[in-house]
């Protein structure tokens, strides 16, 4: 399918690995030029080269912590007028909520709620003026369903979801959409890290823990960053202009609801 966004410009935050990288590749395949972001410069440069080679689009890597005002300014300086913004970031570490100090709570809220809102503030008026804009926030299944140890992530992301729900309606008539993509279990470094910790705590192998986790999913497998990216690219396409303010689960059927 031609997504109709060839020649558009995207900022994809936190995209040197994992889900963000999957989104960047899919947008690149659709002909969108990219600002790629991550903190580790060598990983970022390698991913930028991989996507340039695979898609032929212009890829500008910006090594910066997207949670900081300086990091955001550097990313926006590389592309002040994006047509597409993919909000992504690291997630807070797994932790019992009793162990969360005030500073850790504020960091979590900054990463997963304040940062995407700040970036939306910076880009939305230009998108509205040009009558095209697509914003996708990568959040989590934990917005809909508690996940032990991820309460801070759930709270911050639910706050973001509620915050943007109203904003999405104010720009819908300008062909600017804001949607949230909620991953369940996706096979990325982050998931592998949590499987390693679970394996250490249970004296099972990482493979055994991974198989048990995947067996909980009706699809009986983890999702891939590539399929996540393709869904994100569709939400950014010309065909998705009537989808806004939605939270779209990608979880292989894990969340057991009728609606
Ligand atoms: N994978 C899943 O199953 C799953 C499920 C639910 C929710 N999520 C959420 O989805 C998001 C992406 O997850 P993932 O699995 O793709 O993680 P990942 O494999 O660990 O990749 C994270 C990416 O974000 C970059 N990054 C992290 N912190 C950053 C920062 N402060 N500034 C700029 N870049 C940063 C990392 O690069 P550097 O480390 O070099 O900065 C890397 O490119 C996370 O918020 C995660 O909690 C994931």
Question: How does this structure look, described?
Answer:
By secondary structure, the protein is α/β, with parallel strands linked by helices. Helix content is 47%, strand content 14%. The protein has eight helices and seven strands. It has a seven-stranded parallel β-sheet with strand order 3-2-1-4-5-6-7, with helices on both faces. Strand 4, helix 4 and strand 5 form a beta-alpha-beta unit. Helix 6 crosses helix 7. The longest helix is centred in the middle third of the chain and has 29 residues. The protein is globular. It starts with 8 loop residues before the first strand and ends in a 9-residue tail after the last strand. The model has no long low-confidence stretch (mean pLDDT 97). The structure holds NADP nicotinamide-adenine-dinucleotide phosphate (NAP). NADP nicotinamide-adenine-dinucleotide phosphate binds next to helix 1, strand 2 and helix 6.
């Amino acid at each position: 399918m031609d997504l109709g966004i060839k020649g558009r410009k995207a900022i994809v935050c936190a995209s040197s690995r994992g889900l963000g990288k999957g989104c960047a590749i899919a947008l690149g395949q659709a002909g969108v030029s990219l600002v790629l972001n991550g903190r580790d410069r060598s990983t970022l440069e390698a991913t930028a080269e991989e996507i340039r080679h695979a898609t032929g689009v212009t890829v500008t890597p910006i090594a910066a912590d997207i949670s900081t005002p300086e990091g955001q300014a550097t990313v926006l300086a590389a592309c002040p007028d994006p047509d597409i913004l993919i909000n992504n970031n690291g997630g807070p570490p797994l932790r019992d909520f009793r162990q969360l100090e005030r500073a850790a709570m504020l960091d979590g809220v900054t990463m997963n709620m304040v940062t995407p809102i700040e970036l939306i503030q910076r880009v939305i008026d230009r998108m509205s003026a040009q009558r095209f804009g697509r914003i996708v926030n990568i959040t989590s299944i934990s917005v809909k369903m508690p996940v032990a140890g991820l309460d801070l992530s759930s709270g911050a992301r639910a706050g973001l979801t509620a915050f943007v729900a109203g904003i999405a309606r104010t720009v819908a008539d300008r062909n600017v959409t804001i949607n949230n993509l909620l991953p369940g279990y996706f096979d990325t470094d982050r998931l592998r890290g949590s499987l390693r910790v679970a394996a250490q705590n249970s004296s099972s192998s990482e493979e055994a823990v991974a198989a048990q986790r995947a067996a909980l999913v009706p699809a009986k497998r983890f999702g891939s960053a590539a399929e996540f990216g393709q869904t994100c690219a569709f939400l950014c396409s010309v065909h998705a202009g009537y989808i806004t303010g939605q939270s779209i689960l990608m979880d292989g059927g894990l969340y057991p609801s009728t609606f």
